Amino acid sequence: MELKARDLIAAGWPEGPRLGTALRRGRELEASGLTRDAVLAQLASELPKLPVLAALRSAPASFAEAIRPEGPAELANVAKARAKMQELLAVPVIRRGALMPDTCPAGNEPATIPVGGAIEVENALIPGAHSADICCSMFCTFFESTHPTAFMLDQLQAVTHFGPGGRPRGQQHQAAVLDEPIWDNRFLSGLRSRAQDFLGTQGDGNHFASVGRIAFSPGQIRALESAGYGELARQLSRGPGEFSVLVTHHGSRGLGADVYKRGQIAARAFCAANARDIPDAAVWLPADSAVGADYWEALQYVSRWTRANHEVVHESFLRRLGLRASAQVGNEHNFVWRRGDTYLHGKGATPAWKDAEGRPLLGLIPLNMAREILLVLGGGNDTYLSFAPHGAGRNLSRTALMRPYRNEDGETDPAQIRQLLADLTPGLDIRWFTGTPDLSESPLGYKDASAVKAQIGEFGLAQVVGEVQPRGCLMAGEPGEQRWMRARREKRAAHKSSRREGQDQVGEG
Length: 509
Known about the structure:
twelve-stranded mixed β-sheet, 14 helices, tRNA-splicing ligase RtcB, alpha+beta, 3 domains
């Protein structure tokens, strides 16, 4: 006999809008040949029998601020981030939150988690809290080299790829991560070719590849040893005591964006049936459901893929130099981590708790292209959910920052931009993959690096145990949208010029 609504009510599903969703899914399962008991068991894992629709809290959960804003711009910036965090913390599955020293708004939609924001969540995965750039992360390789910076950047530019799209056919990389038996996961199905296309690419925006130098003091080596990183300390104390360093910053590219889109669709569907008035940026999947388990598995794969993506770039670079790595360190700062019975979501927040062996986590925190990249040991400060910042953060949007440098037609003076960048990055070899500089990614676009660094110590977020001093940096360059707008303006100007020339010729004739 076909499954009826009364059968579901008798089994514990409440009446209401979710009952129809459960009935349709139950009949699909029944049609696949499952027994009634198996149908009900599967249905319970996919559509939990919540007694009432989940609703927003009347007052937000608590959150802590590890930031001391300075000046009118940062005060206004933090006020906006605080307002978004308060909207987000009204979501019933979120227990508490924290803002890091680099906090800034990430969008205008209700309940959008700020950059530098972290939340503790009960039995739920919130795709919007990690956004499309799943597993944006840092990775560095220490190596011994006397090659000039310019030569190393030449080799780096030859092996990596910035900007939109993946690598062209014939230039794609292979990696063991592509052959994992994972592609039947509902959030990864059909994406293997995307995973291969984007392997060895880095995207745009604030993603970068840089080369620098680092020397460890005896005290820093002892700090690593005391923290439980004896082997790393030994590796870093060998040789001349100073290393060249390659540092890359990027996420999961098109693969992660597709997984996020699928996760967001599934989370919308769940909340439409099981909750009310949840902002789109905060819809969730129950972690203990079948769909939640699949999303969690997909996230773990994206993490492994992103690590492999960093490794491909670093291995290709070292191979061209004929060198080998002395040591490597990496960390995510845009992800979801499970700790006990909670899920910690960080949007641009560096994990700073202790690992399974009791060691404070190692992390990399870049400040801006002209300043040092910090190697840190996590402070494990539970007040701030045991996170640290992921960088210096922005005080102005890219559009707002560029406004003073554009004329009334929206155009910039390339010579002025080049000179300003040179003044901001003296002595550094800064390159743009597209060939067009992006002033919005210069130090001008970020918070005061010294203040952010000081607040890491002030709030007990992490301990600095090394500083990579910059020598050169490769970034994407002018964002695709800006290039498109510039090309459009140039085309329009050329059309006007052509019309004027035609009119002049007619007049002369």
